[in-house]
Amino acid sequence: MLIKRLASYVLIAVVLFITFYFLHGYVVQKVGAIHPFSLFEVYVFNFLFSIITVVIFDLLATYTIRFKDQLGFLYLATMIAKIGLFCIVFKESLFAGVPLTKGDSLSLLIPIFLYLFYEVYILAKILNRKPSI
């Protein structure tokens, strides 16, 4: 049952990645915008971080009763870590001295919020799940 749940989390994230990356890329191309960062890398970062987060949280909820009640607080700490890691990975694009346009900022925020909603949705499912023990 655990493998099936984890596979469904990955499948949902892959579908989100494929759908929104190509749609987002198409819109950026049609508008003719050129970003100082790789849109693909932004999506991959958020995709991988989200997959790792939901898998770890599901494993914590499944195998440790002690952490089940604390997952919401752990998730907040995870978001701070995600923001910090994002800033480190994309520091050349974010802090290069060239101000980001509104389009650039929006292109950074779309995948961030997309995977934020995904993580919150999965975490809510995990927290509302009845304990199997």
Residue stretches low in confidence (pLDDT < 50, at least 5 long) are none
Instruction: Report Rg.
Output: 17 Å
The percentage of residues in β strands lies in under 5%
Tally of individual helices: 6
The topology string of helices and strands comes to HHHHHH
- C-alpha end-to-end distance: 13 Å
Output mean pLDDT.
91
- Give a quick account of the main beta sheet: strands, pairing sense, barrel closure: none
Number of E-state strands = 0
Structural class: mainly alpha
Number of domains: 1
Shape: elongated
Architecture overview:
The protein is an all-alpha fold and 133 residues long. It has one domain. Helix content is 82%, strand content 0%. It is built from six helices and no strands. It has helices at residues 2-31, 39-63, 65-68, 71-89, 91-94, 102-128. The two termini are 13 Å apart. The mean pLDDT is 91.
Structure characteristics:
133 residues; mainly alpha; 6 helices; 82% helix
Question: Quick summary of this structure?
Answer:
With 133 residues, this protein is mostly helical.
Spell out the blueprint of helices and strands.
Blueprint: H1 2-31, H2 39-63, H3 65-68, H4 71-89, H5 91-94, H6 102-128
